[in-house]
Design goal:
- This protein has one domain (about 5-115): 2-Layer Sandwich (Transcription Regulator spoIIAA), CATH 3.30.750.
- About 40% of the residues lie in helices and about 25% in strands.
- It contains five helices and four strands, in the order βααβαβαβα.
- Helix 4 links the parallel strand 3 and strand 4.
- Helix 3 runs parallel beside helix 4 (about 85-95).
- It is globular.
């Protein structure tokens, strides 16, 4: 957690759908998101991100179901390549029915600067 404001997920090396499922299944991950209402997915350290359209839609469905329990979650995404945000745009479109906010940043520093300060 960062300043009691967000869950930070650093993704390194080759990232695929199984890696993201392992993150989501980590003890306490969902509870922290429900408490804090913000998660940062930092793909900037990844050498490759392989997510199919089906996997993107599956993660969007998970967000939709979770949004029925916790409204007003903010997802911050730092893509692997700031110049190629096509996959992020696909995810944003798929997640939109959940009502969650998705913000895209070029760097972790930018994302951290946008976090609210909490005690």
């Amino acid at each position: 957690m960062i300043n009691n404001a967000a869950v930070l997920v650093h993704l390194y090396a080759e990232v695929d759908g199984l890696d993201l499922m392992q993150v989501h299944n980590s003890p306490g991950f969902v509870d922290h998101i429900r408490t804090l209402g913000c998660v940062i997915y930092d793909y900037s350290g990844a050498t490759q991100v392989t997510l199919s359209q089906t996997e993107i839609e599956s993660f969007a469905k998970l967000a939709f179901f979770e949004s029925r329990i916790k409204e007003n979650v903010t997802l911050m995404i730092i893509p692997q390549d700031p110049n190629n945000k096509a996959r992020v745009q696909q995810y944003m479109q798929a997640v939109s029915p959940s009502g969650w906010s998705i913000l895209v940043f070029d760097t972790l520093k930018q994302a951290l600067a946008s976090l609210p300060t909490r005690a």
